[in-house]
Amino acid sequence: MAVVSTFDLLKLPEQRAMPIHRRQDKDDGVKLIQKGLTRIEWLIIVAVLGILAAAVYPVYKTYTVRPRFSEVVETMAPYKAAIENCAKNGSCVEGGALARLGVGKLGVPPSISTTYLARVSVSPNGVITAVASNAGGLSGETFVLTPSLSKTMVITWAVGGTCKTRATGAIC
C-alpha cells in the first residue's frame, strides 16, 4: 500500500502521484475512501460462487441428459401402436391376455438402434424394453412399458425401468 504524505494531499489533483478520493467527515476532518474490493472480499465471492456451482452442476447434468433420453422414449411409439392395434383386432390375444408378440412379429417393427438407443425388445406378453446406449451422458438406462389389457381390449401402459431410479434424478 502506498504512503501518501500531507504534502501530496495539498497538490492539485493533476499534480499528485496517485489519485486519492476524499470525503468531508462531520467533524470537518478529511477521510480517505477505499475504492474496489479487498482480497478477503474476493475470496468470499469466489467461495460463494463455488458453492453455488457445486449445487447446480448435478441439476444441469440431468437437464442435459433428459433430452437425449427422450429419443429413447419417442422410439417406443411405433411399438406401442403395433401392440395396441394387434390387441384391437385380436390377433395377439389368447385367453384375455397378450401373447405371441415379439420384435418383427404380428406387425411389431424390428429392433432399431440410434445414437442414444442401443436396442428395443418386445416380450411375448407385450412388455417393451428400450435400452439406452452409452453415449452423451447415458449409461445403458432402461425404459420399460408394461401393457395391461382390459376386457374391452384397451391397453394401459405402466412405465418402469432404471431411468426412474437414476442416482442423479429420474430422466423419464
How many β-strand runs?
8
Amount of beta strand: 15-25%
Cα distance spanning the termini: 58 Å
General shape: rod-shaped
Rounded mean pLDDT is 83
Taking strands numbered 1, 2, ... along the chain, how are they ordered across the largest sheet?
5-6-7-8
Number of helical segments?
A: 3
Class inferred from helices and paired strands: alpha+beta
The whole-angstrom Rg is 34 Å
Uncertain runs: none
What portion of residues is helical? 25-40%
Largest sheet report: 4 strands, antiparallel
SSE succession: HEEHHEEEEEE
Description:
The chain has a 4-stranded antiparallel sheet with strand order 5-6-7-8. Strands 1-2 form a two-stranded antiparallel ribbon. Strand 1 and strand 2 (30-32) form a beta hairpin. The chain contains 3 helices and 8 strands, in the order αββααββββββ. The chain starts with 5 loop residues before the first helix and ends in a 12-residue tail after the last strand. It has 172 residues and is an alpha+beta fold.
Which terms summarize this structure?
172 residues; 4-stranded antiparallel beta sheet; alpha+beta; 31% helix; two-stranded antiparallel ribbon
Question: Concise description?
Answer:
The protein is an alpha+beta fold.
Topology diagram in text:
Elements: H1 6-10, E1 22-24, E2 30-32, H2 39-74, H3 77-89, E3 93-94, E4 97-98, E5 117-122, E6 128-132, E7 142-149, E8 155-160
Antiparallel strand pairs: 1-2, 3-4, 5-6, 6-7, 7-8
